[in-house]
Amino acid sequence: MREDLTVRGTRDYYPEVYSRLGHIMDAWRRTALAYGFEEFDGPVIETLDLYRIKSGDEITGQLYHFTDKGGRELALRPELTPTVARMVAKILREAPKPIKWFSIPRCFRYEKPQKGRLREFFQFNVDIIGEEEGLSDVETMGVAIDSLLRLGLKEDDFVVKINNRDFVSVFFRDAGIGEKDERELYKIIDNAPKVPPEVTDERIGDLGIDGKQKQALDEYLGIKNIEDLERMKYSNPGKESLLAVFSHIQAAGFGPYCALDVTVVRGLDYYTGTVYEIFDKGERMRAICGGGRYNHLLREFGGLEVPACGFGMGDVVLGDILEKRGLLPEYEKKVDYFLVRISEDQLPVLLETARTLRKKGHTVEYAYRPTSVKKQMAKASKAGAASALIFGREEMEEKSVRVKDLRSGEEKTLPLADIFAE
Ligand code: HAM
User: Fold this and answer.
1) Where in the chain is the domain with CATH 3.30.930.10?
2) pTM to 2 decimal places
């Protein structure tokens, strides 16, 4: 047999698989529309430079990139945020603010294919541009939470872990930890929940920070919830912003789905204030969703400093969770009418009926080749049709048709005009 020519980390969307993806996308789209977001898209290929500007090592190391025939260095999009920034920068001056956009792009990352991570995936993106930190961050979280609830997940299934990059960075700067160490520190903090405490201690030791700084770090990692943060005497604008965001979260009724988690710092370089990730509560899978505020990214493209925030939610981890919970609908092909002819004499009227019903929005099928009525009826059942319309000579003379309900088996003769009126 020929070798499998499927590209590693990609999926073949057979109809039953594609319908499940459609179910997820439908919930995403309906939720974003309910919040007043407008749908848009950008190109699948972008210049390599777009990602060099500010995505950070994690993304640029995973790029699918190539040189085209004109010698341009291009990349398949690994995420949508740089495209959003590039597109918005072009219309920023005239566009009414805030700009509220969503999209469901196909993205590509050269990652090691594993549970929850592939090389090609879909990612629901929701962004608000032109609004300062506060309610807008909570609105984007709301879209993420409500889309998961719409898909049937419950409070016990997932948690939105929230933090603030300004709070973290100013806290460490105030503790005397420099910018270079700070980046290393982010990586250590981000990894802290995934490794034993000794490993975190050892990594901190390797940073070469002094006793006082280590104490500050311990104090930081000791913040376990929003009450701990409230009690903390230390303050900076990022902390105040976090408290304000949590008070909006409570007021909006999202409290049961959200928690402060100071280990969330996010891998991408462009994040500034509020950051968050959504995880499932039971399976300990990779993040379902990640997002946050990126107040300086648009400046890189248009020279204007405009606040922005948003998130990306992939279909892979989410699809696995929904599958485990039995929340993905069974695939069902829907056919309203299967048209059956007794002989080829009835073909013209059958074709005309098919067109009329299809124009009215019904799904209609019929056998492409002349075959017995028995075989046509078998095809109708196999197609999952609700009814068969049987065209015979007698019926045609009377401009009527025999209708068989394929679920109940009930049969009756009806004027064709009645069928068209349905
Ligand atoms: P990200 O954390 O890189 O953020 O990705 C967000 C989500 O996309 C992840 O939580 C995951 O669900 C999905 N995802 C990422 N990589 C893969 C992969 N290889 N396979 C399957 N799913 C994946 C961003 O991309 C930001 N641009 C999100 C954002 C939008 N921030 C602001 N606006």
Assistant:
1) 3-324
2) 0.94
